[in-house]
From TrEMBL:
It comes from Cordyceps confragosa. It comes from the Eukaryota. Residues 16-188 form the Nitroreductase domain. This is Nitroreductase domain-containing protein. InterPro entries: Frm2/Hbn1, Nitroreductase, Nitroreductase-like. One of its GO terms (molecular function) is oxidoreductase activity. Keywords: Cytoplasm, Nucleus, Oxidoreductase. The keyword Nucleus applies. It is found in: Cytoplasm; Nucleus.
């Protein structure tokens, strides 16, 4: 396969364009069919260790997206209130903001694939938990970047940090028991002009070393 007519600098500029965008609108200038096309294309080429392909994706829009967040909020409420009313007051507002977005791209790892890979590649069995995280992370960043290049805003959430939320969403979305929730990407039209500011990063003198 010959190299595409796309330079490394152009690719990096596209990757650099991605931002975490909050306050998303409940509309999408990009048709659902195009979002589906992007997700399916990413699933068709994104790498995974030993090409095990453990990543699974559910696209949730419309009324189902509203119900998705209603379930998250209802399930999380008693746990967050148990941490203090101030915690609930803050988090409930944040979750309502996410609910107001247009849709979610939900990323799962099929643990049945991971467990099978452990048996096939015994000497590296202890690594496949990490490999699954790597694979889902690569799919997440690719989809996230592509959606923003299409003109949408997005933010990546991990409400599975509240354990009961994962089981509630698995039931609602009717996914297999072997699926493990890794993250969900809220998306929708942006509330303002896309930010050109890159968040502050550590100097490369602290993060990079060249050995020759």
């Amino acid at each position: 396969m010959s190299a595409p007519k796309l330079s490394a600098n152009e690719f990096l500029a596209a990757a650099k364009y991605r931002r975490t965008v909050y306050g998303l609108k409940g509309t999408s200038k990009v048709p659902d069919s195009r979002v589906q096309e992007i997700v399916e294309e990413v699933l068709g080429f994104a790498p995974s260790s030993y090409n095990t392909q453990p990543v699974r994706v559910t696209l949730v829009t419309g009324e189902k997206h509203t119900q998705f967040w209603d379930i998250v909020i209802k399930t999380a409420e008693p746990i967050l209130k148990g941490a203090g009313e101030a915690v609930w007051d803050k988090m409930s507002g944040i979750m309502q903001s996410h609910k107001a977005s247009y849709g979610s791209v939900v990323f799962w790892e099929d643990t049945s694939v991971t467990e099978a890979a452990k048996k096939t590649h015994v000497s590296y069995a202890h690594m496949f938990e990490s490999f699954g995280e790597h694979a889902t992370g690569m799919n997440q960043i690719l989809v996230w970047t592509a959606l923003e290049l299409e003109g949408l805003g997005a933010n990546l959430q991990h409400m599975n940090g509240i354990p009961p939320v994962e089981e509630a969403l698995k039931k609602f979305l009717a996914v297999p028991a072997s699926y493990r929730l890794r993250a969900h990407l809220n998306y929708g039209d942006e509330p303002a002009a896309h930010s050109e500011t890159v968040p502050a990063k550590l100097p490369t003198s602290e993060t990079f070393k060249y050995v020759n």
